[in-house]
Structure formats: C-alpha cells, structure tokens
Automatic annotation (TrEMBL):
Topology class, membrane: Multi-pass membrane protein
Main location (coarse class): membrane
Gene Ontology CC terms: membrane
Keywords: Membrane, Transmembrane, Transmembrane helix
Signal peptide location: none
Source organism of the structure: Halomonas cupida
Protein name: Membrane protein
A Pfam family matched in the record: Yip1
This protein's record includes keyword Transmembrane helix: yes
Location(s) in or outside the cell: Membrane
Domain Yip1 per the UniProt entry, residue ranges: 6-179
Regions crossing the membrane: 29-49, 69-87, 108-128, 134-152, 164-191
C-alpha cells in the first residue's frame, strides 16, 4: 500500500502501469488502501477538534467533546468510503461509451487510487485552521485531477483527447461530491452551530 502511495505522488505514470498490471481486487483495495488512508482525515479531524479546536484565525477556538467528535468521525468516515464508490460508479458510467469497458469493481479501484492525494491532504485537520484546511484541500484536489488526467487514458484504453473529456466529467462530479463532503463535515463536526453560538454570545 505504501509503495503505491509513494509511487502515485512521486512517479504517477510508472505507478499507473504497475497498478494496471496487478489486477487488484476491490476487497484488497479497500482493506489495504482506502480503509487506511480514509482514516487520515477522520483521525486528524478528531484530534484537531477535541484537542486544538476549530479556528478562523482570530483566536477563538471551538472544541468538541470526545463523544460528539467520535460520532461525527464515524459518519464522516463512512461518507468518505461512499464518495469513493460514487466516483467509481461515475467512471464506470463514462466507460460504457468505449469498447471493452472495465468492470465496476475496476472503476471503483481506480477511484480509490485517484483519491489518494485527497486522503493525504486531510492530515492538516490535526491543526484545524479553516484557511489551512481549504488550502490543503485545493492542493489535494489539483493533484487528484492530475492523477485522473494521466491515468484515465491507459485505464480505459482511449486517446488522451477522449481521456480529457472523461477526466473533466469525472472531476466535475468529484468536485460536487467533495463540496457535499465539506459541507457535511462542517455540520458533522458541529462547527457551523458553534460559530453561530459564539457570534451571538
């Protein structure tokens, strides 16, 4: 798992070829990649919200209780796993337009790998400044787009031009899923409610 993470970040072209040759199963991907990496933003957010507290940078820290943060973390974790599945389904839908499309499992596996930068960017939530988390999220999203762009042509056995179209469509849906996740995160971690209370008090 760590070899693929490093490979995707440092030498993505070579790593995509290695991943394609492996013919990994969906069960193995989730057990050795998605389940572990998806825990990074959840654990970081749990620590950040219970120990440091959310901050807009003005000095006010808003902390959550351990049980509240635990419940939010569990739901957040399941939501991340579901998001990978949804993006995989989108890739599968787009792939049906081409000859010899990959299976649904292969598309979800591909989605799990392209989400790697987003998972890693979640580490900054351990010190949850809003601007810092947004910056890390944008960087993770940009690198995810890059992985998608260079990986989709060989994955679907299509030209780079066709790959660009699929990449843009998939990324568009992925951004919508990401925005939904960010909005849900704010609600789950109780940040929005506590900001309003702090402003009114």
């Amino acid at each position: 798992m760590l070899a693929h993470v490093w490979g995707l970040m440092a030498r993505p072209n070579r790593e995509w070829k290695a991943i394609k040759e492996e013919r990994e199963t969906l069960t193995h991907l989730y057990a050795h990649h998605v389940l572990l990496l998806a825990a990074i933003p959840v654990v970081a957010s749990y620590i950040g919200t219970t120990q440091v507290g959310w901050s807009l940078g003005g000095g006010t820290q808003i902390k959550l209780g351990y049980l509240d943060a635990l419940g939010a973390g569990i739901v957040f974790y399941l939501t991340i796993l579901a998001a990978v599945y949804v993006v995989g389904k989108v890739i599968r839908y787009m792939a049906k337009r081409y000859p010899k499309p990959p299976s649904q499992s292969q598309c979800i596996i591909f989605a799990g790998y392209i989400a790697t930068p987003m998972f890693l960017s979640g580490i900054v939530a351990i010190y949850p400044l809003v601007w810092l988390c947004l910056l890390a999220g944008v960087i993770g999203l940009c690198y995810t787009a890059f992985l998608l762009y260079i990986g989709i042509p060989s994955f679907l056995n299509i030209s780079e031009k066709e790959g660009f179209i699929v990449s843009i469509t998939t990324l568009g849906v992925g951004v919508l899923v990401l925005e939904a996740l960010l909005g849900m995160t704010v609600l789950l971690w109780g940040y929005g409610e506590r900001i309003i209370l702090s402003i009114l008090s």
